[in-house]
Design a protein that fits this description.
Layout (H helix, E strand, L loop, with lengths): L1 E5 L10 H13 L5 E8 L6 E3 L4 E6 L2 E3 L2 E3 L2 H12 L2 E6 L2 H9 L6 E5 L7 H17 L2 E4 L2 H6 L1 H4 L6 E2 L14 H11 L3 E5 L8 H7 L7 E4 L5 H11 L4 E5 L3 H9 L1 E6 L10 H8 L4 E4 L5 H4 L6 E4 L4 H13 L1 H18 L2 H21 L1
Helix pairs in contact: 1-15, 3-4, 8-9, 8-13, 11-14
């Protein structure tokens, strides 16, 4: 069974939650005899083909971007050749360029869309793109989204008038590198323990400006791991507020990330816009039995994190609410540990990579079998 994944960026060019989701789907379906290739764009596609454990990655040169949406002229021919290899095309939405590829190359094979997020910020361009979006989503064989929360709150999904399956994103615990004693000691020497930890790309919708406000004059430490377009703006804000208890770590390698999670009091994830559809960092925290803090934005963040079961849910864009939640977990260690145990139980129940892999393999087989019957 040959599956072609289509997504706008991938490792090593970018390192985000959706890239990790694609990787986890590939890794956890491979034991069932599934082979994967990934179509993506790169500013420097040299080499053009990368061989990773999960898949062959085919990178095509980025020709231009419109509102962060990449396009590739050479990619059209490359995509058509990859479609010939594939039994099924697995699109990861949104990426308007993939909609165009689908129609330009007249794809006739079974098609699956993993609907990761609505388009939130580019509302002006969305008016232009919307007819193509609905035409594309209406034409694919099947649509999957990652949580019942997102299915219920997405205007796009609720107006499509078709059955949509829910498959939560998952993580394979075995795929995480084992933690060395030296790395954990290194992290403890730098930061001690019981800090609040954020991991992710520093983007507008992550709500980090509210996290900085919430940390002002606090008794606890906040570590922010990651880089991104808002990095300098956030550092400037921290400087204005005189935040000595907030540290920006920049990009961290996987082994350091694991060490940071293991010594954290909690994972704080204050994303405040629906652009945050799920939150792989929350799964990583839950996997390591850490309590979670999220804002209620009607997406998968509060499907992973259930208030007072796995952590605390706060009002979005509200530093006072966020500060109160952090103080509850910081000054009540027993409660924080119970929330961490709850997070781990929910991870084992819903979010393992193996469970996600089984569900995707079933969908792949059903779509291919349906195609054979037509």
């Amino acid at each position: 069974m040959n599956i072609l994944h289509v997504y706008r960026t991938y490792f090593p060019d970018t390192q985000g939650g959706l890239e990790e989701t694609v990787r986890q789907i590939c890794l956890n379906t491979a034991p069932f005899g599934v082979k994967h290739r990934i179509f993506t764009l790169s500013q420097k596609p040299d080499p053009a083909i990368l061989q990773f454990p999960e898949a062959e990655v085919y990178r095509f040169p980025l020709s231009f971007e419109i509102a962060s949406c990449g396009f590739s002229i050479a990619g059209v021919i490359g995509f058509k050749k990859l479609v010939e290899w594939a039994d099924l095309i697995h699109y990861h939405f949104p990426w308007p360029y993939e909609d165009l590829l689908h129609f330009l190359c007249n794809v006739q094979k079974p098609t699956l869309v993993s609907y990761q997020s609505d388009i939130i910020r580019q509302q002006g361009l969305l008016k232009i793109y919307s007819p193509l979006q609905y035409l594309f989503l209406s034409s694919v064989t099947k649509i999957i989204t990652t949580s019942p929360n997102y299915l219920q709150s997405s205007h796009v999904l609720t107006t499509l008038n078709r059955d949509i399956e829910i498959i939560p994103n998952g993580l394979d615990e075995k795929g995480y590198s084992s933690l060395s004693f030296k790395k954990r000691e290194y992290v403890r020497e730098r930061f001690s323990s019981d800090y609040f930890l954020f991991i992710g790309v520093l983007r507008y919708y992550k709500g980090l400006q509210y996290l900085l406000d919430a940390a002002r004059d606090a008794a606890f430490t906040v570590l922010i791991a990651g880089s991104g377009p808002m990095e300098q703006e956030l550092k400037d804000q921290a400087r204005r507020l005189g935040l000595k208890n907030v540290k920006f770590l920049g990009y961290v390698e996987d082994d350091e990330k694991i060490a940071l999670i293991q010594d954290a009091r909690a994972i704080v994830f204050p994303s405040c816009e629906r652009s945050e559809a799920f939150g792989i960092t929350l799964l990583e925290g839950a996997m390591f039995a850490k309590p979670l803090i999220t804002a209620e934005i009607g997406t998968g963040t509060t499907y992973i994190n259930r208030d007072r079961e796995t952590g605390l849910v706060v009002v979005p864009k509200d530093p006072v609410s966020l500060r109160a939640a952090m103080e509850i977990l910081y000054f009540n260690k027993g409660f924080a540990m119970r929330m961490g145990v709850g997070a781990r139980k929910r991870f084992e129940l819903l979010f393992t990579g193996q469970e996600m892999g089984r569900k995707y393999v079933k969908v792949y087989r059903d779509l291919l079998h349906r195609d054979e019957l037509v």
